[in-house]
Amino acid sequence: MFGCSHPARQLKTIVINETEETRVPFLRGILIRNLLDVGLSFEDAFGLATRVREDLSEIPEISAAEIRDKTIGYLEEGGHTEALEPYRLSPSAPAKIQVHSLSGTLSAFSRGKHERYLQASGMKTEKAEQTTALIYDQLLASGVTSITTCQLGYLTYLCLRQEVSKKAAKRYLVWSEFQRSGRPLLLLICGTVGTGKSTMATEIAHLLDIVRIQSTDMLREVMRLMMPSRLLPVLHTSSFNAWQALPILDTRERDKDQLVADGYRTQTDLIAVPCEAVLQRAIEESVPLILEGVHAHPDLMSRIPAETDAILAHVTLAVLKPKELKSRLRGRGSQVPQRRAKRYLNKFDSVWSLQSFLLSEADRCDVPIITNNDKEKAVVQVILQVVHELTRHFDGGPENVFGPVVDEFQERAEHLEWNQLVPIICGPKLV
What's the rounded Cα separation, in Å, for the pair 310 and 306? Predict the structure, then answer.
């Protein structure tokens, strides 16, 4: 079946057009479209374009003229003499697919945006790239120049069901339904120093299209300006050292881990006030928000009104090997000297103690713990946790999410491959 095999991972060949001064990846679907335009059948166009792609599998760069010469050679070899002259005279500019949104806006199909949307539903980067390439390739090969977001969403859903897995398709459906709901997502990322909270928040925000990221450290800095150290000394210490500012006289007789926990809780209770204000503002404005920091404690969730329509998700990041956490703290010092990594390393026992307390709190409150040893893997795990939380609120079928287009073609979707439905759902071929 054409276009149904899983796409193999291969070197992306860049096509250089010196006349137009462009550098774009080679796309088999564009070549198929051009060959369809000059009169080849789909089977012949698909076979010829596939041969060209196989020839380029190990070539990093090639000129547009060389691509055309190679294609002409295969046309001659295959006896397609009637298509030679039209192909020589045909424009070589890539075809564009216009996407019509529900709001009436019009934009060009963006592979990058489609890939990020798939990643937002919990798909790994490589698989998202492959799936988007497969869909885009098929749209071009079918002569599609215009498509609605509902049609594209439904075709993507069908492609995922047949080419990836039913679970991946279900996650995509849940994410799509959430996106159409307009409800805000509030994601809290907790963890001790060095666990990668800021980096994780930035990565997740990019994939989930969240523009607001709030650091609890910044809120603490604002409070420090308002409250001098002589009035509130516990606010002017590090989270793992906050116990030293508590009015405790018999510290030597106390359990060190308990002291670290008491100091952290005291400081977190103070910072919970601005944290709550930030969360409430996001709810009132119905905008998504990521709140990250050591003070993003699970108790913050209890401060949010139960009747809110916001979706609440919470994770705690951890680095479970002391040697690796120390290495990360040293890295912070070399990359951003003002962070004074030496101070963290000198107090590493307290940092480690605080992490142990945060993990026990996460376990007590049923907050997922994500081990951040591999960034890409950890990002996927955080997103999967977000999607898992979304499944508590969204469980609609494709007909609820993508509308009438599903009702019209659902019966045929039960008997046909998704790529066979592309020209049916998107209308007659424009070739």
Answer: 9
Specify whether the CB–CB gap between 235 and 412 falls below 8 A.
Answer: no
Q: Say yes or no: 413 and 369 in one domain.
A: no
SS3 breakdown of the chain: % helix, strand, coil, rounded to 5? 60, 10, 30
Q: 102 and 175 in one domain?
A: yes
Q: Which two tokens stand for residue 367?
A: 């907050």
In this structure, is residue 430 part of a structural domain? no
Residue-wise pLDDT for 93-138, tens only, equals 556 789 998 888 998 898 889 999 999 999 999 999 999 989 998 8
Burial of 43 (C-beta count, 10 Å sphere; 0-12/13-18/19+): exposed
Write the pLDDT tens digit of every residue in 356-385.
Answer: 999 999 999 999 999 999 999 999 999 999
The residues, any chain, with a CB within 8 Å of residue 87's CB and separated by 6 or more, are 34, 35, 38, 68, 71, 72, 75
In a domain, 413, yes or no: yes
**Same domain, residue pair 262 and 129:** no
**Residue 133 host element (H or E):** helix 125-141
| Sheet (strand 185-190) strand order | 213-215, 289-292, 185-190, 311-318, 369-371
Question: What does the alpha-carbon distance between residue 19 and residue 111 come to, in Å, rounded to a whole number?
Answer: 24
Where in the sequence is the domain holding 152, given as residue range(s)? Answer: 98-180+397-425
**Structural domain count of the chain:** 3
In sequence order, the 6+-apart residues with CB closer than 8 A to the CB of 160 are 131, 168, 169, 172
Residues 292 and 382 both lie in one domain = yes
- In tens, the pLDDT along 164-222 reads 999 999 999 999 999 999 999 999 999 999 999 999 999 999 999 999 999 999 999 99
The overall pTM is greater than 0.85: no
Q: For residue 188, what is the enclosing H or E element?
A: strand 185-190
The two beta strands, 369-371 and 311-318, are parallel
Instruction: Please give the helix or strand (H or E) that residue 73 lies within, else none.
Output: helix 64-77
Q: Name residues whose C-beta falls within 8 Å of residue 99's C-beta, 6 or more positions apart in sequence.
A: 106, 107, 108, 109, 147, 148, 149, 152
